[in-house]
Amino acid sequence: VQLQAFGGGLVQAGGSLRLSCLASGRIFGNAIFGNAIMGWYRQDPGKQRELVARITTGGNTNYADSVKDRFAISRDNAKNTVYLQMDSLKPEDTAIYYCNAMIGKAQYWGQGTQVTVSS
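The chain above was modelled as a monomer; its predicted structure follows.
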């Protein structure tokens, strides 16, 4: 299983970025991707990794309080891809963002993509 995250970069405060995470590998045929709970986490150096947003197999979403009304997670099961639209970015959103997949009791992580928000 591979989770490849794309879309990180440097942006000014108030700007937007869209992260994408493509799932591939033997377990991620289309039917299995649709059964995975997908999420985005982030981690700053010296801090714990925290949940940013999650989307269930049925499309239900939940967000960290710090990103509610600014970030939106979505998924395209036909493309084995999960997205994170990030608007009104703040310097405190700066972190490495990781894609996560949960299938049953198994968890998979992507390599992370750096998001830097300048003030």
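The mean pLDDT is 94.
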